[in-house]
Design goal:
The longest helix has about 70 residues. It is built from one helix and no strands. The chain is rod-shaped, with a radius of gyration of 31 Å.
Amino acid sequence: MAKEKITRIRTKYNKLSNQTILNFHLRFHVKHFKEDFKIKKILILKQQYKNDFYINRSIICSTWNIKTIKLSLI
């Protein structure tokens, strides 16, 4: 009788602790997913900025080259 009661208490405790662990893992994953999403968003924005910078730089360089070529021809 006492053994069965201890077993029931243990299984109840194990179920509760498993649920607590599961909840913790879910909260942990959601939190980290949000952080990862922010980091990825920042990285994407940095990459876009970098791309825009290089595109603008190449346009400026190409127009500058055209100007220098025209000047050298004169």
